[in-house]
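Lab notebook, bench 4. Still working through the backlog of constructs that have no structural model yet. Next entry is a single chain of 528 residues. Request: give me the C-alpha coordinates for it.
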Amino acid sequence: MAGANGELQNELRRIQDLMRKADPADAVWACDRFNRDHPAFAPGWNLASQLALRIGDPNAALRAIGLALNIEPDQSEWLLQKAKCLLVLGRREEARILAQKMSDRLFSSAGLSTAAGLLLSSLDMYEQAESLFLDAVKQEPGVAGSYYNLATVQRFLGKLDKAETNLDKSLALDPGDGEALVLRSGLRRQTPESNHLDQLEGLLADSASSPRRAVSICYSLAKELEDIGDYSRSFTYLKRGADTRREHLRYDVQRDIQTMAAIRDVYSEAVFTEDKVGFINASPIFVIGMPRTGTTLVERILGSHSAVHAAGELNEFALSLVKITRGLAGNRPASGADLVTLSQHIDFAALGRLYIEGARDRLTQCVHFVDKMPLNFLYAGLIHLALPKAKIIHVERDPMDTCYAVYKTLFENAYPYSYDLRELGQYYVAYKELMAHWYKVIPGVMHTVKYEDLVADHQGVTQSMLEYCKLSWEEQCLRPHEGAGYSATASATQVRRPVHQESVGKWKHYQNELQPLAEILLAAGITP
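Model written out:
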Protein backbone atom coordinates (compact mmCIF):
# COMPACT_ATOMS: atom_id res chain seq x y z
CA MET A 1 0.00 0.00 0.00
CA ALA A 2 2.80 2.41 0.90
CA GLY A 3 4.47 1.74 -2.44
CA ALA A 4 1.22 2.37 -4.28
CA ASN A 5 0.71 5.65 -2.46
CA GLY A 6 4.24 6.63 -3.39
CA GLU A 7 3.48 6.05 -7.06
CA LEU A 8 0.31 8.12 -6.80
CA GLN A 9 2.19 10.95 -5.09
CA ASN A 10 4.77 10.89 -7.90
CA GLU A 11 1.97 11.16 -10.45
CA LEU A 12 0.52 14.15 -8.59
CA ARG A 13 3.96 15.78 -8.60
CA ARG A 14 4.06 15.38 -12.38
CA ILE A 15 0.69 17.13 -12.60
CA GLN A 16 2.03 19.95 -10.41
CA ASP A 17 5.02 20.29 -12.74
CA LEU A 18 2.59 20.46 -15.65
CA MET A 19 0.71 23.23 -13.82
CA ARG A 20 3.92 25.25 -13.47
CA LYS A 21 5.31 24.65 -16.96
CA ALA A 22 2.29 24.43 -19.26
CA ASP A 23 -1.26 25.64 -19.76
CA PRO A 24 -3.16 25.23 -16.46
CA ALA A 25 -6.02 23.68 -18.43
CA ASP A 26 -3.73 20.74 -19.26
CA ALA A 27 -3.03 20.22 -15.57
CA VAL A 28 -6.75 20.42 -14.75
CA TRP A 29 -7.51 17.78 -17.39
CA ALA A 30 -4.74 15.52 -16.08
CA CYS A 31 -5.93 15.94 -12.51
CA ASP A 32 -9.53 15.17 -13.46
CA ARG A 33 -8.41 11.97 -15.14
CA PHE A 34 -6.29 11.07 -12.08
CA ASN A 35 -9.26 11.54 -9.73
CA ARG A 36 -11.53 9.43 -11.92
CA ASP A 37 -8.97 6.64 -11.72
CA HIS A 38 -8.23 7.08 -7.99
CA PRO A 39 -11.37 8.60 -6.37
CA ALA A 40 -10.40 7.43 -2.86
CA PHE A 41 -7.00 9.19 -2.86
CA ALA A 42 -7.59 12.47 -0.94
CA PRO A 43 -4.43 14.33 -2.10
CA GLY A 44 -5.77 14.18 -5.66
CA TRP A 45 -8.89 16.08 -4.68
CA ASN A 46 -6.78 18.59 -2.76
CA LEU A 47 -4.70 19.22 -5.87
CA ALA A 48 -7.89 19.55 -7.92
CA SER A 49 -9.06 22.19 -5.45
CA GLN A 50 -5.80 24.13 -5.73
CA LEU A 51 -5.97 23.99 -9.53
CA ALA A 52 -9.58 25.18 -9.55
CA LEU A 53 -8.64 28.19 -7.40
CA ARG A 54 -5.72 28.87 -9.74
CA ILE A 55 -8.02 29.11 -12.77
CA GLY A 56 -10.65 31.16 -10.95
CA ASP A 57 -13.33 28.56 -10.18
CA PRO A 58 -13.76 28.69 -6.38
CA ASN A 59 -17.03 26.72 -6.41
CA ALA A 60 -15.30 23.77 -8.08
CA ALA A 61 -12.40 24.21 -5.64
CA LEU A 62 -14.77 23.99 -2.68
CA ARG A 63 -16.45 20.85 -4.06
CA ALA A 64 -13.08 19.16 -4.63
CA ILE A 65 -11.71 19.89 -1.17
CA GLY A 66 -15.00 18.68 0.28
CA LEU A 67 -14.36 15.30 -1.36
CA ALA A 68 -10.85 15.23 0.14
CA LEU A 69 -12.30 15.92 3.60
CA ASN A 70 -14.86 13.18 3.17
CA ILE A 71 -11.92 10.79 2.90
CA GLU A 72 -9.66 12.38 5.55
CA PRO A 73 -11.94 14.57 7.72
CA ASP A 74 -9.32 15.85 10.16
CA GLN A 75 -6.50 16.64 7.75
CA SER A 76 -5.23 20.14 8.63
CA GLU A 77 -4.02 20.88 5.12
CA TRP A 78 -7.43 20.06 3.65
CA LEU A 79 -9.23 22.19 6.28
CA LEU A 80 -6.93 25.08 5.47
CA GLN A 81 -7.70 24.75 1.76
CA LYS A 82 -11.44 24.70 2.46
CA ALA A 83 -11.16 27.92 4.49
CA LYS A 84 -9.31 29.56 1.57
CA CYS A 85 -12.09 28.55 -0.81
CA LEU A 86 -14.76 29.94 1.52
CA LEU A 87 -12.85 33.20 1.81
CA VAL A 88 -12.53 33.58 -1.96
CA LEU A 89 -16.29 32.95 -2.27
CA GLY A 90 -16.97 35.76 0.20
CA ARG A 91 -18.26 33.37 2.86
CA ARG A 92 -16.10 34.98 5.51
CA GLU A 93 -18.09 33.90 8.54
CA GLU A 94 -17.85 30.22 7.56
CA ALA A 95 -14.15 30.68 6.84
CA ARG A 96 -13.71 32.34 10.23
CA ILE A 97 -15.45 29.50 12.08
CA LEU A 98 -13.23 26.95 10.33
CA ALA A 99 -10.10 29.03 10.94
CA GLN A 100 -10.98 29.34 14.62
CA LYS A 101 -11.01 25.54 14.86
CA MET A 102 -7.53 25.45 13.33
CA SER A 103 -6.03 28.29 15.34
CA ASP A 104 -5.04 26.07 18.28
CA ARG A 105 -3.60 23.26 16.16
CA LEU A 106 0.05 22.39 15.99
CA PHE A 107 0.91 22.07 12.33
CA SER A 108 3.42 19.56 11.08
CA SER A 109 5.55 22.09 9.21
CA ALA A 110 6.53 25.76 9.32
CA GLY A 111 5.02 26.15 5.86
CA LEU A 112 1.58 25.02 7.03
CA SER A 113 1.79 27.20 10.15
CA THR A 114 2.66 30.15 7.92
CA ALA A 115 -0.17 29.42 5.49
CA ALA A 116 -2.64 29.16 8.36
CA GLY A 117 -1.29 32.39 9.90
CA LEU A 118 -1.70 34.25 6.60
CA LEU A 119 -5.26 32.97 6.31
CA LEU A 120 -6.11 34.12 9.82
CA SER A 121 -4.51 37.50 9.11
CA SER A 122 -6.75 37.94 6.07
CA LEU A 123 -9.70 37.26 8.40
CA ASP A 124 -8.47 39.94 10.86
CA MET A 125 -7.72 37.23 13.46
CA TYR A 126 -4.36 38.73 14.34
CA GLU A 127 -3.85 37.31 17.83
CA GLN A 128 -4.38 33.77 16.57
CA ALA A 129 -2.18 34.50 13.54
CA GLU A 130 0.60 35.66 15.86
CA SER A 131 0.60 32.26 17.61
CA LEU A 132 0.90 30.45 14.29
CA PHE A 133 3.74 32.68 13.10
CA LEU A 134 5.52 32.10 16.40
CA ASP A 135 5.20 28.37 15.74
CA ALA A 136 6.63 28.83 12.23
CA VAL A 137 9.63 30.71 13.63
CA LYS A 138 10.17 28.00 16.25
CA GLN A 139 10.11 25.24 13.63
CA GLU A 140 12.31 27.03 11.09
CA PRO A 141 14.24 29.90 12.76
CA GLY A 142 16.28 30.62 9.63
CA VAL A 143 13.46 31.92 7.44
CA ALA A 144 13.38 35.73 7.12
CA GLY A 145 9.77 35.83 5.95
CA SER A 146 8.54 34.13 9.12
CA TYR A 147 9.92 36.94 11.28
CA TYR A 148 8.45 39.52 8.89
CA ASN A 149 4.99 37.94 9.09
CA LEU A 150 5.23 37.85 12.85
CA ALA A 151 6.30 41.50 13.04
CA THR A 152 3.46 42.58 10.76
CA VAL A 153 0.73 41.20 13.00
CA GLN A 154 2.51 42.45 16.12
CA ARG A 155 2.46 45.94 14.64
CA PHE A 156 -1.28 45.64 14.04
CA LEU A 157 -1.70 44.52 17.66
CA GLY A 158 0.37 47.42 19.00
CA LYS A 159 3.30 45.26 20.13
CA LEU A 160 5.78 47.64 18.56
CA ASP A 161 8.92 46.67 20.50
CA LYS A 162 8.43 43.00 19.67
CA ALA A 163 7.75 43.90 16.05
CA GLU A 164 11.04 45.81 15.81
CA THR A 165 12.97 42.93 17.36
CA ASN A 166 11.53 40.50 14.83
CA LEU A 167 12.15 42.85 11.92
CA ASP A 168 15.79 43.07 12.99
CA LYS A 169 15.91 39.26 12.90
CA SER A 170 14.26 39.21 9.49
CA LEU A 171 16.68 41.77 8.08
CA ALA A 172 19.67 39.95 9.56
CA LEU A 173 18.67 37.03 7.33
CA ASP A 174 17.62 39.15 4.31
CA PRO A 175 19.15 42.66 4.63
CA GLY A 176 17.62 43.95 1.41
CA ASP A 177 13.96 43.14 2.09
CA GLY A 178 12.37 46.46 1.16
CA GLU A 179 9.03 45.85 2.85
CA ALA A 180 10.75 44.95 6.12
CA LEU A 181 12.91 48.07 5.91
CA VAL A 182 9.92 50.37 5.42
CA LEU A 183 8.00 48.68 8.22
CA ARG A 184 10.92 48.95 10.64
CA SER A 185 11.57 52.62 9.92
CA GLY A 186 7.94 53.41 10.62
CA LEU A 187 7.66 51.65 13.96
CA ARG A 188 9.05 54.53 15.98
CA ARG A 189 10.51 58.00 15.75
CA GLN A 190 14.16 57.65 14.80
CA THR A 191 16.78 59.78 16.59
CA PRO A 192 20.30 60.99 15.74
CA GLU A 193 21.59 58.41 18.21
CA SER A 194 19.40 55.51 17.09
CA ASN A 195 18.60 55.09 13.41
CA HIS A 196 19.43 52.94 10.38
CA LEU A 197 20.70 55.61 7.99
CA ASP A 198 24.15 54.16 7.34
CA GLN A 199 22.72 50.72 6.67
CA LEU A 200 20.01 52.10 4.37
CA GLU A 201 22.38 54.22 2.32
CA GLY A 202 24.68 51.23 1.88
CA LEU A 203 21.77 49.11 0.72
CA LEU A 204 20.64 51.79 -1.71
CA ALA A 205 24.03 51.80 -3.37
CA ASP A 206 23.61 48.06 -4.05
CA SER A 207 19.99 48.22 -5.28
CA ALA A 208 20.48 49.41 -8.86
CA SER A 209 19.21 46.13 -10.28
CA SER A 210 15.98 46.17 -8.25
CA PRO A 211 13.82 49.30 -8.66
CA ARG A 212 11.22 47.91 -6.25
CA ARG A 213 13.82 47.51 -3.52
CA ALA A 214 15.29 50.95 -4.27
CA VAL A 215 11.85 52.53 -3.84
CA SER A 216 11.42 50.96 -0.40
CA ILE A 217 14.89 52.02 0.71
CA CYS A 218 14.28 55.60 -0.47
CA TYR A 219 11.03 55.84 1.49
CA SER A 220 12.76 54.42 4.57
CA LEU A 221 15.55 56.97 4.27
CA ALA A 222 13.06 59.80 3.79
CA LYS A 223 11.15 58.81 6.91
CA GLU A 224 14.21 58.46 9.13
CA LEU A 225 15.81 61.69 7.87
CA GLU A 226 12.59 63.59 8.53
CA ASP A 227 12.53 62.18 12.05
CA ILE A 228 15.96 63.65 12.80
CA GLY A 229 15.15 66.98 11.10
CA ASP A 230 17.26 66.65 7.94
CA TYR A 231 14.40 67.82 5.71
CA SER A 232 16.32 68.61 2.53
CA ARG A 233 17.91 65.17 2.27
CA SER A 234 14.63 63.57 3.32
CA PHE A 235 12.74 65.06 0.39
CA THR A 236 15.53 64.23 -2.04
CA TYR A 237 15.17 60.55 -1.23
CA LEU A 238 11.38 60.76 -1.09
CA LYS A 239 11.14 62.22 -4.59
CA ARG A 240 13.63 59.70 -5.92
CA GLY A 241 11.54 56.86 -4.52
CA ALA A 242 8.21 58.32 -5.69
CA ASP A 243 9.54 59.01 -9.20
CA THR A 244 10.85 55.45 -9.50
CA ARG A 245 7.57 54.02 -8.25
CA ARG A 246 5.57 56.15 -10.71
CA GLU A 247 7.73 55.01 -13.64
CA HIS A 248 6.61 51.44 -13.06
CA LEU A 249 2.87 52.13 -12.75
CA ARG A 250 0.27 52.06 -15.51
CA TYR A 251 -2.09 54.79 -14.36
CA ASP A 252 -3.96 57.74 -15.83
CA VAL A 253 -5.25 60.22 -13.26
CA GLN A 254 -7.69 61.61 -15.82
CA ARG A 255 -9.77 58.44 -15.61
CA ASP A 256 -10.31 58.98 -11.89
CA ILE A 257 -11.11 62.64 -12.48
CA GLN A 258 -13.60 61.75 -15.23
CA THR A 259 -15.28 59.19 -12.97
CA MET A 260 -15.72 61.80 -10.23
CA ALA A 261 -17.13 64.26 -12.77
CA ALA A 262 -19.55 61.58 -13.96
CA ILE A 263 -20.70 60.98 -10.39
CA ARG A 264 -21.47 64.69 -10.01
CA ASP A 265 -23.38 64.77 -13.29
CA VAL A 266 -25.43 61.63 -12.67
CA TYR A 267 -26.22 62.26 -9.01
CA SER A 268 -27.70 65.70 -9.38
CA GLU A 269 -30.02 67.37 -6.89
CA ALA A 270 -32.98 65.94 -8.80
CA VAL A 271 -31.96 62.38 -7.90
CA PHE A 272 -32.29 63.14 -4.20
CA THR A 273 -35.78 64.59 -4.57
CA GLU A 274 -37.08 61.37 -6.15
CA ASP A 275 -38.95 58.83 -4.07
CA LYS A 276 -36.17 56.30 -3.47
CA VAL A 277 -36.51 53.87 -0.57
CA GLY A 278 -33.33 52.66 1.10
CA PHE A 279 -32.62 49.82 3.50
CA ILE A 280 -33.40 50.89 7.07
CA ASN A 281 -30.45 50.02 9.27
CA ALA A 282 -28.74 52.46 11.64
CA SER A 283 -25.73 50.28 12.45
CA PRO A 284 -23.07 51.73 10.09
CA ILE A 285 -20.99 54.82 10.78
CA PHE A 286 -19.00 55.63 7.64
CA VAL A 287 -15.76 57.61 8.07
CA ILE A 288 -14.70 59.04 4.72
CA GLY A 289 -12.16 61.45 3.21
CA MET A 290 -8.74 61.48 1.67
CA PRO A 291 -6.23 59.00 3.13
CA ARG A 292 -3.86 60.27 5.83
CA THR A 293 -6.33 62.85 7.12
CA GLY A 294 -7.03 61.31 10.54
CA THR A 295 -9.71 58.80 9.55
CA THR A 296 -8.04 56.09 11.63
CA LEU A 297 -7.89 58.37 14.66
CA VAL A 298 -11.62 59.11 14.30
CA GLU A 299 -12.32 55.40 13.97
CA ARG A 300 -10.31 54.64 17.11
CA ILE A 301 -12.15 57.35 19.07
CA LEU A 302 -15.54 56.02 18.01
CA GLY A 303 -14.41 52.42 18.50
CA SER A 304 -13.52 53.23 22.12
CA HIS A 305 -17.24 53.67 22.80
CA SER A 306 -18.96 50.66 24.34
CA ALA A 307 -21.69 50.70 21.68
CA VAL A 308 -19.34 50.85 18.68
CA HIS A 309 -17.11 48.30 16.96
CA ALA A 310 -14.23 49.59 14.80
CA ALA A 311 -14.48 47.31 11.75
CA GLY A 312 -11.61 48.85 9.76
CA GLU A 313 -11.50 49.61 6.05
CA LEU A 314 -14.27 47.55 4.48
CA ASN A 315 -14.60 47.10 0.71
CA GLU A 316 -18.18 45.94 1.01
CA PHE A 317 -19.98 49.07 -0.21
CA ALA A 318 -17.98 49.38 -3.43
CA LEU A 319 -18.16 45.60 -4.03
CA SER A 320 -21.91 45.55 -3.44
CA LEU A 321 -22.43 48.52 -5.75
CA VAL A 322 -20.33 47.00 -8.54
CA LYS A 323 -22.04 43.62 -8.17
CA ILE A 324 -25.54 45.06 -8.56
CA THR A 325 -24.56 47.52 -11.30
CA ARG A 326 -22.74 44.89 -13.36
CA GLY A 327 -25.90 42.82 -13.12
CA LEU A 328 -27.75 45.64 -14.89
CA ALA A 329 -25.03 45.60 -17.55
CA GLY A 330 -25.48 41.88 -18.09
CA ASN A 331 -22.09 41.34 -16.44
CA ARG A 332 -20.42 42.73 -19.56
CA PRO A 333 -17.24 44.80 -19.22
CA ALA A 334 -18.03 48.48 -18.67
CA SER A 335 -16.01 51.62 -17.98
CA GLY A 336 -16.16 53.43 -14.67
CA ALA A 337 -18.25 56.21 -16.20
CA ASP A 338 -20.68 53.66 -17.72
CA LEU A 339 -21.11 51.97 -14.35
CA VAL A 340 -21.82 55.34 -12.74
CA THR A 341 -24.57 56.00 -15.31
CA LEU A 342 -26.09 52.55 -14.78
CA SER A 343 -25.95 52.83 -10.99
CA GLN A 344 -28.74 55.42 -10.84
CA HIS A 345 -31.18 52.68 -11.90
CA ILE A 346 -30.36 50.16 -9.18
CA ASP A 347 -32.58 49.16 -6.27
CA PHE A 348 -30.96 51.18 -3.48
CA ALA A 349 -32.70 49.22 -0.74
CA ALA A 350 -31.17 46.06 -2.22
CA LEU A 351 -27.78 47.78 -2.23
CA GLY A 352 -28.09 48.68 1.43
CA ARG A 353 -29.21 45.17 2.32
CA LEU A 354 -26.35 43.57 0.37
CA TYR A 355 -23.83 45.86 2.09
CA ILE A 356 -25.11 44.96 5.56
CA GLU A 357 -25.05 41.24 4.70
CA GLY A 358 -21.48 41.56 3.42
CA ALA A 359 -20.32 43.43 6.51
CA ARG A 360 -22.14 41.19 8.99
CA ASP A 361 -19.27 38.78 9.60
CA ARG A 362 -17.07 41.71 10.74
CA LEU A 363 -19.56 42.73 13.40
CA THR A 364 -19.82 42.05 17.12
CA GLN A 365 -22.67 42.49 19.55
CA CYS A 366 -22.19 46.27 19.43
CA VAL A 367 -25.08 48.41 18.23
CA HIS A 368 -22.92 50.26 15.67
CA PHE A 369 -19.83 49.59 13.58
CA VAL A 370 -17.39 51.98 11.92
CA ASP A 371 -16.47 51.48 8.26
CA LYS A 372 -13.51 53.78 7.71
CA MET A 373 -12.74 53.11 4.05
CA PRO A 374 -11.57 56.59 2.92
CA LEU A 375 -12.52 55.97 -0.72
CA ASN A 376 -16.17 55.78 0.26
CA PHE A 377 -16.16 59.57 -0.26
CA LEU A 378 -16.90 58.62 -3.87
CA TYR A 379 -20.22 57.13 -2.77
CA ALA A 380 -21.42 59.47 -0.01
CA GLY A 381 -24.67 60.29 -1.81
CA LEU A 382 -25.25 56.66 -2.75
CA ILE A 383 -24.64 55.57 0.83
CA HIS A 384 -27.37 57.96 1.93
CA LEU A 385 -29.77 56.60 -0.69
CA ALA A 386 -28.99 52.98 0.21
CA LEU A 387 -28.79 53.41 4.00
CA PRO A 388 -30.64 56.59 4.95
CA LYS A 389 -30.20 55.96 8.68
CA ALA A 390 -26.42 55.47 8.45
CA LYS A 391 -24.11 58.17 9.75
CA ILE A 392 -21.39 59.67 7.52
CA ILE A 393 -18.41 61.51 9.03
CA HIS A 394 -16.17 63.38 6.61
CA VAL A 395 -12.65 64.00 7.94
CA GLU A 396 -10.81 67.01 6.51
CA ARG A 397 -7.25 68.17 6.99
CA ASP A 398 -5.18 71.09 5.71
CA PRO A 399 -4.83 70.50 1.94
CA MET A 400 -1.04 70.73 1.87
CA ASP A 401 -0.62 68.57 4.97
CA THR A 402 -3.01 66.03 3.46
CA CYS A 403 -1.23 65.86 0.13
CA TYR A 404 2.24 65.75 1.64
CA ALA A 405 1.19 62.96 4.04
CA VAL A 406 -0.18 60.99 1.09
CA TYR A 407 2.92 61.65 -1.02
CA LYS A 408 5.34 60.41 1.64
CA THR A 409 3.46 57.15 2.24
CA LEU A 410 4.43 54.06 0.28
CA PHE A 411 1.08 52.35 -0.20
CA GLU A 412 0.92 48.67 -1.05
CA ASN A 413 -1.53 48.55 -3.96
CA ALA A 414 -3.66 51.66 -3.49
CA TYR A 415 -3.72 55.35 -4.39
CA PRO A 416 -1.57 55.34 -7.56
CA TYR A 417 -2.01 59.11 -7.88
CA SER A 418 0.17 59.59 -4.81
CA TYR A 419 3.58 59.28 -6.51
CA ASP A 420 3.49 62.43 -8.65
CA LEU A 421 2.87 65.86 -7.12
CA ARG A 422 0.91 67.21 -10.08
CA GLU A 423 -1.30 64.14 -10.35
CA LEU A 424 -1.80 64.24 -6.59
CA GLY A 425 -2.89 67.88 -6.84
CA GLN A 426 -5.29 67.15 -9.71
CA TYR A 427 -6.86 64.25 -7.82
CA TYR A 428 -7.22 66.36 -4.69
CA VAL A 429 -9.01 69.11 -6.62
CA ALA A 430 -11.45 66.55 -8.06
CA TYR A 431 -12.04 65.15 -4.55
CA LYS A 432 -12.83 68.62 -3.21
CA GLU A 433 -15.24 69.28 -6.08
CA LEU A 434 -17.05 66.00 -5.44
CA MET A 435 -17.31 66.61 -1.71
CA ALA A 436 -18.68 70.12 -2.33
CA HIS A 437 -21.28 68.48 -4.57
CA TRP A 438 -22.30 65.99 -1.87
CA TYR A 439 -22.69 68.76 0.70
CA LYS A 440 -24.98 70.54 -1.76
CA VAL A 441 -27.24 67.62 -2.73
CA ILE A 442 -27.52 65.94 0.70
CA PRO A 443 -27.38 68.97 3.02
CA GLY A 444 -27.24 68.23 6.73
CA VAL A 445 -26.54 64.53 6.24
CA MET A 446 -22.77 64.43 6.79
CA HIS A 447 -20.85 65.56 9.85
CA THR A 448 -17.50 67.25 9.22
CA VAL A 449 -14.48 66.72 11.49
CA LYS A 450 -11.45 68.90 10.88
CA TYR A 451 -8.27 67.14 11.93
CA GLU A 452 -6.64 70.31 13.26
CA ASP A 453 -9.68 71.01 15.45
CA LEU A 454 -9.74 67.42 16.69
CA VAL A 455 -6.14 67.43 17.92
CA ALA A 456 -6.47 70.94 19.41
CA ASP A 457 -9.81 70.32 21.17
CA HIS A 458 -10.08 66.57 21.46
CA GLN A 459 -12.91 66.59 23.99
CA GLY A 460 -15.05 69.22 22.28
CA VAL A 461 -14.81 67.70 18.80
CA THR A 462 -15.31 64.18 20.14
CA GLN A 463 -18.41 65.27 22.06
CA SER A 464 -19.87 66.86 18.92
CA MET A 465 -19.10 63.71 16.93
CA LEU A 466 -20.80 61.46 19.50
CA GLU A 467 -23.85 63.70 19.57
CA TYR A 468 -24.14 63.46 15.78
CA CYS A 469 -23.99 59.66 16.07
CA LYS A 470 -26.59 59.78 18.89
CA LEU A 471 -24.15 58.19 21.30
CA SER A 472 -23.81 58.99 24.98
CA TRP A 473 -20.62 60.51 26.34
CA GLU A 474 -17.97 58.02 27.52
CA GLU A 475 -14.62 59.11 28.98
CA GLN A 476 -12.66 56.34 27.27
CA CYS A 477 -13.23 58.10 23.94
CA LEU A 478 -10.55 60.56 25.09
CA ARG A 479 -8.01 57.71 25.33
CA PRO A 480 -8.20 55.91 21.97
CA HIS A 481 -4.50 54.98 22.17
CA GLU A 482 -5.23 52.74 25.15
CA GLY A 483 -7.70 50.57 23.25
CA ALA A 484 -6.86 46.90 22.95
CA GLY A 485 -8.12 46.53 19.40
CA TYR A 486 -5.96 46.13 16.34
CA SER A 487 -5.28 48.61 13.56
CA ALA A 488 -4.30 47.31 10.13
CA THR A 489 -3.90 50.64 8.33
CA ALA A 490 -0.94 52.85 7.41
CA SER A 491 -1.56 54.60 10.75
CA ALA A 492 -1.18 51.45 12.84
CA THR A 493 1.83 52.88 14.65
CA GLN A 494 0.60 56.45 15.13
CA VAL A 495 -2.71 55.44 16.73
CA ARG A 496 -0.83 53.89 19.66
CA ARG A 497 0.26 57.38 20.75
CA PRO A 498 -1.92 59.89 22.65
CA VAL A 499 -3.60 62.51 20.48
CA HIS A 500 -1.01 65.14 19.51
CA GLN A 501 -0.49 68.12 17.20
CA GLU A 502 2.99 67.26 15.91
CA SER A 503 1.80 66.57 12.35
CA VAL A 504 0.03 69.90 11.93
CA GLY A 505 1.86 72.10 9.40
CA LYS A 506 4.58 69.54 8.67
CA TRP A 507 4.38 70.36 4.96
CA LYS A 508 5.93 73.77 5.67
CA HIS A 509 9.37 72.14 5.96
CA TYR A 510 9.08 71.48 2.22
CA GLN A 511 7.47 74.63 0.82
CA ASN A 512 9.91 74.92 -2.10
CA GLU A 513 9.85 71.23 -2.95
CA LEU A 514 6.03 71.10 -2.88
CA GLN A 515 5.61 74.11 -5.17
CA PRO A 516 4.22 72.07 -8.14
CA LEU A 517 1.48 70.79 -5.86
CA ALA A 518 0.76 74.21 -4.35
CA GLU A 519 0.37 75.78 -7.79
CA ILE A 520 -2.35 73.33 -8.79
CA LEU A 521 -4.25 73.78 -5.53
CA LEU A 522 -4.01 77.57 -5.65
CA ALA A 523 -5.21 77.63 -9.27
CA ALA A 524 -8.33 75.77 -8.09
CA GLY A 525 -8.88 78.24 -5.25
CA ILE A 526 -7.66 75.84 -2.57
CA THR A 527 -5.36 77.40 0.04
CA PRO A 528 -3.79 75.94 3.19
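Notes after review: The first strand starts at residue 284 and ends at 288. The CA atoms of residues 195 and 224 lie 7 Å apart. Flag for follow-up if needed.
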